[in-house]
Design brief:
Largest sheet: 5 strands, mixed
Helix content: 25-40%
Structural class: alpha+beta
Shape: globular
Number of helices: 6
Strand content: 5-15%
Order of helices and strands: EEHEHEHHEHEEH
Distance between the termini: 31 Å
């Protein structure tokens, strides 16, 4: 199924709880609650995700090269944060493309906030995670854009045909992240190299499976 039809995927909520990554015993998983440090109202100072998402993140971390680690920016997201991000990006689009369809363009990068139980925003399910890889010195690998860069360069495969040394490095780094996450059960949102899903409707649209994570809103 085309990812554009992700909201058509049925959900059979499994009841799996959210868990906090704050007390993760793994040195190979580091946390920076990005939106909390941006000062966005309602953002959490810790990171929550579904229990199986955490276990799969542990698996992915263990597939990294020696002394590398995952850096997680965001997972489950409160409604207020999703609304803020959507409004912020929508206003940016209005400035840059005043005659375009704001909702269509905006939702390519920030899902329209939805607490509809049949089509919740992916980050409202606890099944979405935004992350990158840290090298041996604790520095993020070069991925070609910053987190939350909204442009074509954020497409996971954007640098796949770039033969410059820098382009090849970026492609290899993105491929490393993609490979370890997919091998661990996640699916990537093609427009954002940092965004991965498990168990929700985005994941179901990619795998053909029924989603098992629905709305968690509190």
């Amino acid at each position: 199924m085309d990812l554009k039809s992700w909201q058509e995927i049925p959900i059979q909520e499994c009841g799996e709880p959210l868990v906090s990554l704050t007390n993760s015993p793994l040195s190979k998983i580091q946390l920076i609650p990005f939106y909390y440090y941006r000062g966005i109202t309602g953002a959490l100072n810790h990171i929550l995700c579904r229990e199986s998402v955490y276990e799969k993140l542990r698996t992915a971390a263990n597939h990294l090269p020696e002394n590398h680690s995952l850096l997680i920016w965001d997972a489950w997201r409160p409604y207020a944060v999703q609304q803020y991000l959507y409004d912020e990006f929508k206003n940016t689009i209005k400035r840059l493309n005043p005659i375009g369809n704001v909702n269509d363009l905006g939702s390519q990068f920030v899902s329209i906030p939805s607490i509809d139980v049949n089509k919740p925003s992916p980050h409202f399910t606890g099944g979405s995670v935004d992350l990158t890889i840290l090298d041996k010195s604790g520095k993020p690998l070069e991925m070609g854009t910053a987190f939350d860069h909204f442009g074509d360069e954020s497409n996971t495969q954007f640098f796949s045909d770039n033969i410059s040394s820098q382009g090849l490095l970026i492609h290899q780094n993105r491929k490393l992240l993609l490979d370890i996450m997919v091998e661990s059960g996640f699916q990537n949102y093609d427009m954002e190299w940092w965004h991965f899903d498990y168990g929700n409707q985005f994941w179901g649209a990619k795998t053909g499976e029924i989603a098992k994570y629905g709305l968690i809103n509190f």
